[in-house]
């Protein structure tokens, strides 16, 4: 019998699908919508110690190849975590709390709240491309990101994942963070981008620069996962431009054990997870694979 169950970073999933942080993860009602789909886990919006307003609109713009957004990490703050985790308990699904901050104390503060609330894992956001002093700026600073990871991994017992964006030092950064106790990598976040209004004669987004998501970044994500898996054989959750089941297979062949879906969830709704499940299952049966472990990373030499 063909099984879609998989284990990644100490987390056992009945299905290898989940939504990407930032999509339907900021309040219990939104998270419950995802929980009703064919997912193996729920991912919250990136949470900071205190509520954060984010950027003024416009914060997202559709392009011919995806979306450019600069939400600015708006979120309800750590006090909202218990109710978010309760949604997972209601539906019997692991909840991964995405964590954001500016230093190790802020990351640890939110991670502790997540653990105390019963979260199954935390995902440290070291890759948001449009929040000043946060996200990608931290991920590109190996000293600071190492201190954050060291602090969180040594003071929490639940699995710790790290979400990294594409950068020249990706393999080296991933290697160092894994050495410090990270249980799995989430690759990749959106890619820095912008759009200019040719009649207003200025950038469309208030923040000017945002992060590109959607189909355009899928080949970049595939390359990133391939390079990291080839060198490190690390547990990886792949994310970036997945819209159909063939994308899921491609991500897994280069090393991803599970995947997250963002833009396609906006376009297709939670039905996208049913499409991915049916397609992956059919392909595995056609290829005579009994479980995902049999082909993860098989395209990596």
TrEMBL record:
Note on cofactor: Binds 1 FMN per subunit.
| Catalysed conversion reaction | (S)-dihydroorotate + A = orotate + AH2
Q: What's the domain of life for this entry?
A: Archaea
| GO BP terms | 'de novo' pyrimidine nucleobase biosynthetic process; 'de novo' UMP biosynthetic process
Location relative to the cell: Cytoplasm
Active-site residue numbers: 128
A Pfam family (short name) is DHO_dh
What are the UniProt keywords, alphabetically? Cytoplasm, Flavoprotein, FMN, Oxidoreductase, Pyrimidine biosynthesis
Which positions are annotated as binding substrate? 45, 69-73, 125, 189-190
Q: What is its EC number?
A: 1.3.-.-
Q: Which residue ranges does the record assign to the Dihydroorotate dehydrogenase catalytic domain?
A: 4-284
Q: Does the keyword Oxidoreductase apply?
A: yes
Q: Name one GO cellular component term.
A: cytoplasm
UniProt: FMN binding residues: 21, 45-46, 125, 163, 188, 214, 240-241, 262-263
Q: In which pathway does it act?
A: Pyrimidine metabolism; UMP biosynthesis via de novo pathway
Database matches in InterPro entries: Aldolase_TIM, DHO_dehydrogenase, DHOD_1B, DHODH_Type1, Dihydroorotate_DH_1, Dihydroorotate_DH_1_2, Dihydroorotate_DH_cat, Dihydroorotate_DH_I
| Cofactor(s) essential for the protein | FMN
To which protein family does this belong?
Belongs to the dihydroorotate dehydrogenase family. Type 1 subfamily.
- Briefly state the protein's biological role: Catalyzes the conversion of dihydroorotate to orotate.
Record's protein name: Dihydroorotate dehydrogenase
Q: Which organism is it from?
A: Ignicoccus islandicus DSM 13165
Taxonomy, top ranks, is:
Archaea, Thermoproteota, Thermoprotei, Desulfurococcales, Desulfurococcaceae
